[in-house]
Amino acid sequence: MIKDKLQNYSKVEWPEKVxxxxxxxHYATNDSIWFTAYLVNGIxxxxxxxxxxxxxxxxxDQDSIVSKRKLYINDVSVQGDFKIGKDWKKxxxxxxxxxxxxxxxxxxxxFEKVIDIWSQNTKxxxxxxxxxxxxxxxxxxxxxxxxxxxxxxxxxxxxxxxVAIKIKNESYSKIPLSGHITDNDGTIISEFSTLDYGxxxxxxxxxxxxxxxxxxxxxxxxxxxQLPEALAxxxxxxxxxxxxxxxxxxxxxxxxxxxxxxxxxxxxGEILFxxxxxxxxxxxxxxxxxxALQDGVAHLTLFNYEGKPVCERLVFxxxxxxKATIKIEKDKNLLGAKEKISLKLTTEDAKGSNLPSYLSxxxxxINAIPHNNRSKNIKMWLLLNSxxxxxxxxxxxxxxxxxxxxxxxxxxxxxxxxxxxxxxxxNLLYGKNDINTFPIEKGITISGTTKLLKPPNSATPAFTTLxxxxxxxxxxxxxxxxxxxKFSFGPFVFYDSIQTIIQSRLTDITSEKAREVLIFLxxxxxxxKVARNNHINNxxxxxxILKVSEYGSAINFQYxxxxxxxxEVLIIGNKKSERKAExxxxxxxxxxxxxxxxxxxxxLSKQTVISLLARLPGVSFMGGRPxxxxxxxxxxxxxxxxxxxxxxLDYLAEINANQISFIDLYKGANAAIYSxxxxxxxxIYTRRGSSTSSRRAKRKPGVINYSAQGFYxxxxxxxxxxxxxxxxxxxxxxxxxxxxxxxxxxxRQNQTQEISFFTCDIKGDYIIExxxxxxxxxxxxxxxxxxxx
Length: 789
Fold this sequence. Notes:
Elements: H1 2-11, E1 16-22, E2 26-28, E3 32-41, E4 53-59, E5 65-72, E6 77-83, E7 91-98, E8 111-118, H2 122-138, E9 146-150, E10 161-167, E11 178-183, E12 188-193, E13 199-204, E14 212-218, E15 221-226, E16 235-242, E17 245-252, E18 262-267, E19 270-276, E20 283-289, E21 296-303, E22 309-317, E23 325-330, E24 334-335, E25 340-348, E26 357-365, H3 378-383, H4 405-417, H5 425-430, E27 444-452, E28 463-469, E29 473-475, E30 479-480, E31 486-492, E32 497-505, E33 517-521, H6 542-563, H7 575-586, E34 594-597, H8 609-614, E35 619-622, E36 628-631, E37 639-642, E38 645-646, H9 649-652, E39 660-666, H10 668-675, E40 681-686, E41 703-709, E42 737-746, E43 753-758, E44 764-774, E45 779-788
Parallel strand pairs: 2-8, 24-45, 37-40
Antiparallel strand pairs: 1-3, 3-6, 4-5, 4-7, 7-8, 9-10, 10-13, 11-12, 11-14, 14-15, 16-17, 17-20, 18-19, 18-21, 21-22, 23-25, 25-43, 26-42, 26-44, 27-31, 27-33, 28-29, 28-30, 28-32, 32-41, 34-39, 35-36, 37-38, 39-40, 44-45
Helix pairs in contact: 2-6
């Protein structure tokens, strides 16, 4: 059963992982945040075949969502951006990203990244940093939070066990501490000391009827901590991660020994090795090769004869055969201001062969945005942070090209002190197989309920159709809502917004007599509750923020000084021409036969919409029910559109004239251009901000029209192009993000991608930071530098 459950998890119920690269980590108000989001299978790190919809949110330090993007992702990555408002408060913001499917698990599995938004006012930033530093200085007086992690999970009497220790206080994690282990008689058993990140280890062989304590002497104060009590009988698991092998010792002091025990090694849910012990023995040894495994966290679990997990141990696999690199070839290492630089990018595996990949690249000023090793990159996140509970201090240290014995030793202590976050055996083996509350999204689904118009307004089946009005009118086939009135169309893929109309009838969809139906659209699910992880607040350093603020202020002062030297320019605006341009920007076509501007003449807004239509040349009305309209020289059945959505004349009776901005009339050839109509076209545009075209607009029985919100379309990063002739005539260029390339594709056919851009006027050093993932699921990260003089 254990094996079957885990295989179902890895093959069917596998999780998704999201990672986001941003162009930098520090921003100023009124800046733009450029990002690329990667979505992968959480087991294999290959392209996810589940979700095609990704949500990215920007959250302020009051845990309020200030901006949200809904993105369509049809391969492994998608680009996006956030615009920072001029009046936003400075502070630590969080970018959170997830799929709807990921919401079925804990929000701890969402991707989160801290960014700093700083004020242009250096004094304001400095004051806030001083407050933070004063608070941080005060917590050094707190008692160190010392925690103990026996290898395998438990101390057992008369069995030597390795115990990892970790100090969780951020302030103490950088200060080496030392102490000793004593028993309840005060006898010193062992000594210990902490290394980087507050990690340490000691060995102990617990004796029966003994209690053990860890003792720390710090600043003249003595702190005492009781170790976990030892079990009289139990199971032990000892791992030595050496070179390309795992040396494993399994032991038991129980009456039945290891008979019936089951040892399993898995990596992100993929089973790598398992062993069922049939003999009654007290211990055995294994030597497991790791040269065929993928990089990342591996998980050894020992189950007893009852199938209950009794020992666990994490190890980190780093296989040289999985090594992959991004090669950055620059045509120059030293450039002048506003000079062109060209890069050639290739990706290679351990054998030097081309490695098809998706990449994204940021080029930024190192002085303005210091390169912070504590910031996540895709390799750290996918292989380490995303699979472990708690904070991993400075994960870049463990992935350095200069990694040595000490870094590997500390990484093994990280494995002992951070549990695996993706599941617990209790939930996997005994949890209920409930249907996921949040379904997998492949696109935009438009759904709702049909109810009877007359009391008691109960839900009712009805024939329903949906029509999109864009460049082309697209009508979806008629569907019948179910017994409780539910209907659903989609999934669709469209961007920005599109005018949409939904119609329902009790019987025939074309019958006007069967419109006794009300249509209620389902509201989009609200964003998950914000539960900011406390550890992310320490991800960026205050010294970096201050440096960025001071540097930005100096550069802006320099720029403002040069700006004041510009000649005075007198700008004369023409209000009438501005209004004309505004209407032309809103209207679908620029040359109507006649245009009535209501917004510019407030007296018109006091009339009815019907009287406004009567003011159009050649328009007349005919009595009777339903009321009819005709256009002289065209026909008696003109098309009527409200914000480019087709409506009936009766529908307009419910619209207030003060909601109308202007009306366009198309006759003859002009009408044919608009909609291929011979009877003329009337297009009514509401004032911007009016709720007429929103979901909350008044609706006729059996019909609803609104602006359906599509996927967000990312802005294009502005990258100027200079020449020797134009350099002297352009204003000072002070970009801190020199270039942003959100999507770079390396394929078997196109093995090299060449990217070029221009430097700016700021002299100094620049960093090229490239992240991505190969088609085979290997995360990639590389940096390079160049200088501008």
